[in-house]
Structures are given as C-alpha cells and as structure tokens.
Predict the 3D structure of the following.
Amino acid sequence: MAARSQALKRGQRGQLALITAIVALPLSVAVVFAAELTALSGERSKMQAAVDAAALAGAREIGVSGGAERDIKGFTERFAKEQTDEIIPHVRTKFTAEQLPEGAVRIDGVGTRNSFFGNMVPKGGFVIRVRSEALALGQQPLCVVATGSSTVTRAIDAKEQSRIFAPNCLIHSNADMALFDDASIDAGNIQASGQAEGDSYSPKANEGALVLRDPFQSRSIRRKNSKCSDGIKDGVVQQRLVTNGVHRVPAGIKRWQYTARGTAEFRLAPGDHYFCQPLTIEEQGKLTGDNVVLIFENGALNATGDAKVALTGRNSGSWPGFVLVSARENEADTILSSSFVDKLLGIIYLPNSNLFVNAKGNVAEDSLWSVVIARNIALAGGSTLVINDSYAGSGVPVPKGVGSQSNSGEDGARLRQ
C-alpha cells in the first residue's frame, strides 16, 4: 500500500510539473514577446530620428544656391542609411527619398529584423516603417567654395589667429577643412564634403555634405589670339615697372609684366583686362578700378607691403559680376598679404589655383559683396577675410549659382507635421 501511495504521489507531482510547464511556456513567450515589442519601439524611435535628420539635411542642401542641380535624393538616402547602420546595425534598412517641387524632401524607410521561430512569428520578421518630410526655409547665400583637388585633401586651411568672417553666408569645402592656432570661421552656415578639423567654427561645421559643382565650369576663360608670347623677348618677360604717379591702363591685353611700387598707382579703365603675366603691387603702390575684371592667363595678382587695392567688378559685358579670374590652365597663386586690400567687389574665380591671405588685418572689408571660388583657400598671419552680402544696390550683378537671388530672410529647414 505504501509503495502504491508513493507511486500515486509521484504521478501527481509529474502531472503538476507538466501542467506548470504547459502554463509557463506561453507565459515565458509572452514576457519575451513584450520585451521584443519594447525593443522594437525603441528601434522605431531611432529609425524615425534618422529619417528626420536626413530630411532636414536634404532640405538644407536644397536651400544652398544651385541645390536643384545636385543629387539631393541620393544624399538624403545615404545620410539616413549611415545613421541607422551606426545606431541600429542589427536592423536591415532601406530608404527611398524624393525631392518635392515646393522645395521639400520626403524620405520613407523600411527596417526589418529577425523575429521568433525563424521569422515565422511574425512571418518574415519584425517590420518598421517610418516617413519624414522637411521644407527648406530659404536659400543660404553661397559665398565661399573651395573646390579642392585630387592631390590635396584639405581645401580650406586657416592658422595663426586668422579668420573668415561671413556672417550671412555659406562657406563650403569640397574636401576637408582645418583650423589651427586659434583660427576661426564665422558664417551663416559652414560645411565640408570631408571632415572639419578644429573647434572654432560658428556655427558648428556640417561634415559629409554634397560636393558642390563649380557653377561656372562651362565658361570659356582663355581669350583667343592673345599672343602672350609677344611679351617675351629673347626668353625674358618684358616689364612695365612704375614707382610714382598715376598711370591709366586701358582695357585689353597686357603682354608685359606690370609692377607698381613706391607711390605709383595703376588706375584701370572700365572693361576687361587680360594679363599674360603676373601683376604685382608692392610697397605703397595702388591698384584701383571700377567696372573692371582682371583675367590672368598666366601669373596672378600679388599685393604685398602696404599696397592698396580697391576694385569693383564688371556691371556689364561678358563678365558681369566678376572682379578677379584666372584661366583654367593657370595654377599661379593669388597672394593678398597687404592690410590695405580694401575692396574686391564681385566674384574672385580661381578654378585651378589657390588664394592665400596673410595680411595683418581685414581684407575686402569695404566690398558690398564678395564671392570666392578657388581650388584651395589658406589664411595665416592674423588676417581676416571679410565676406559681405549686400547684393542690392551694389551696381554689380550677382550671376546665377552664387550669392542669393531668392533669399527669404530665413535660413535652414524645418520638419513638416
């Protein structure tokens, strides 16, 4: 009887254990499922934050002059993908962006990750769907572009307490940019297609931006039949050196090398001035001209010492809006090391050459507006390159693709509800 009773008790305990196991199994599944749903909610929030950030970034790109010509769609999709790959790497994501006609960006995202029982519950795994739209509020004036080159990774470089001051403008580097020795950049917006090294950016520089296409790359610069070789005799470049007085220079081709030093002044007549050789202004020399453009087929402008430079760009003709231009084959550096380069009103266009500014003071401060497009831009010696944006009333037109022709007064982007 005792043995039979013990067997009965063991059977009862076995049944109880089985019942407990049967009851506990769905309870455990429910607990795990609830935990998964909580994690899924967090992943959806992160994915939504990623598409919000991507939509805003895409809308800001629209706000840059010439944004309609760039791959806003691809940029927005890559931006979101990079975000989610970093914060939720276990979720497989795919994004589809669209640039809307009213200056907005829409992006849809789908994320999937593994679920229970080999993705059987739910079938195919967990699926997350998100959407975001952002609207560009205005067009940020495009004032400084460093186009970079395949041999140099850094396109904007500032050191020795030098500064770029462009409070209402966009400054862009197609490569890296760097600040050293308390140098700084103050602008309406700052961005680099590469990285931004250093801390003194105001506002903070955006990294990984779209590469900006040269808005004037289709323009022909070299003048036909310039015969620059006529300025070379027996292998020696002919010189025009002046040391005092005012020397009026008519528009046209200058085949000789021009230099003003002492107290001499080159006063340029209105029109297009083609230089076959460098133009040097040194000591207390002066270079002045209104409604002019200086085009360098070889060499460049070099202002040193206490030289004074005051130039206003063309208001008509073949080069409206331009003040300094170098030919595409010209790699000579434009050097501004005088503290009296007061006015460069217009576009400084150096597609395959560099701009060096190392004056101890402000450069271009008296210009109503300036735009700089150069391969590389370097500042040193405590200099400040001032970029103003008073386009209206300057008398010098702003070409399409730079500056701002439709600025609403608001910058940036906002999310649509």
In short: The chain is about 20% helix and 40% strand. The longest strand covers residues 340-357. Residues 405-410 have pLDDT under 50 and may be disordered. The helical segments are 2-63, 72-87, 116-119.
